[in-house]
Amino acid sequence: MNLDKSILIVNGEPNSVFLEIFFKALKNKKIKSPIILISSQKILKLHMKHFNFKRKIKILDYKKLNKFNINNNTINLINIDYSQKRTFEKISSKSNAFIEQSFSIAFKIIKKYKIKKFINGPVVKKIFLQKKYLGITEYISKNFNVKNNAMLIYNKSLSVCPITTHLPLKLVTNKISKEIICKKVKLINDFYKKKLNIKPKIAILGLNPHCETVDKFNEDEKIVKPALKYLNNKGFKVSGPYSADTIFIKKNREKFNVILGMYHDQVLTPIKTLFEYDAINITLGLPFIRISPDHGPNEKMLGKNLSDPLSLIQAINFLDKN
């Protein structure tokens, strides 16, 4: 079995909407890549019964994956033991060991079989990561000794990337530097050229409202502009700094492939407003493509069969093509 075309998927938080959207995604007839799911057989069966989803389950031994014929006529499952009596329980630290073991096995598989396509379902960061990491981006990067990474929220029309990720606003200023801006731009440029055959046009936002400040030190003048000058001299298609309150106006955003912002909500709020679930979270800088659907566990929607699978479908479609 040639595993390099397979998509490896980690369930994430077992008490989330992920398996509901996973079942909906599997009904998409266009999926070409074989999918391997890391989850609990017990949880899977509970969810299948709840959502009236019928498909056979094939249990795989992750240590002997290359011995199996993997196709999407069945759910190809690497089973992680997890004790749960009901389909859904309140999200708590009880699921941490399950999530950690799921990721641990996924990392072993990726390293052993050189799998290049990886998707993870959502987790509750404050419960699972317990302040040890800012997010799953950093958690995965640490396990592959990757220090230079970037979070790209991708849509074919427009993508965004925050310089800082899940960082409190009061800490953002100290994490903005010419060096980190240049590193993020290079990661974005390399990804677009390698995977999409595009040299991207990148807009870089200022940190301050209207790129102005009453403070003595103006980060946009002292940090962002020197970064732009350096990048332009190196041949990158970058411009700015732009004010965040007008860059997402249609006539402005249409000029760019990517908008690079200084902090999480500066760019994620507008991109989610524009595209809702039609976007995927790609981690740049890893030795494989890691994607997470752009939504959380969404406890309020558990069991209602109303969750939108579009982001997961787009994640699978993207990996199918790359």
Structure at a glance:
With 322 residues, this protein is α/β, with parallel strands linked by helices. Helices cover 36% and strands 16% of the residues. The chain has helices at 18-26, 41-50, 96-113, 125-128, 136-143, 169-172, 178-196, 219-233, 250-253, 264-275, 310-321, and strands at 7-10, 35-39, 57-59, 75-79, 117-120, 150-154, 159-162, 202-205, 238-242, 258-261, 280-284, 289-293.
How would you describe the overall organization of this protein?
- By secondary structure, the chain is of the alpha/beta class.
- The protein folds into 2 domains: 1-146 and 286-322, Isopropylmalate Dehydrogenase, CATH 3.40.718.10; 150-284, Isopropylmalate Dehydrogenase.
- The chain contains 11 helices and 12 strands.
- It has helices at residues 18-26, 41-50, 96-113, 125-128, 136-143, 169-172, 178-196, 219-233, 250-253, 264-275, 310-321, and strands spanning 7-10, 35-39, 57-59, 75-79, 117-120, 150-154, 159-162, 202-205, 238-242, 258-261, 280-284, 289-293.
- The strands form 2 sheets. An 8-stranded mixed sheet has the order 3-4-2-1-5-12-11-6. Strands 7-10-8-9 form a 4-stranded parallel sheet, sandwiched between helices.
- β1 (7-10), α1 and β2 form a beta-alpha-beta unit.
- α7 packs across α8.
- The longest helix has 19 residues, at 178-196.
- It is elongated, with a radius of gyration of 20 Å.
- The two termini are 19 Å apart.
- The model has no long low-confidence stretch (mean pLDDT 95).
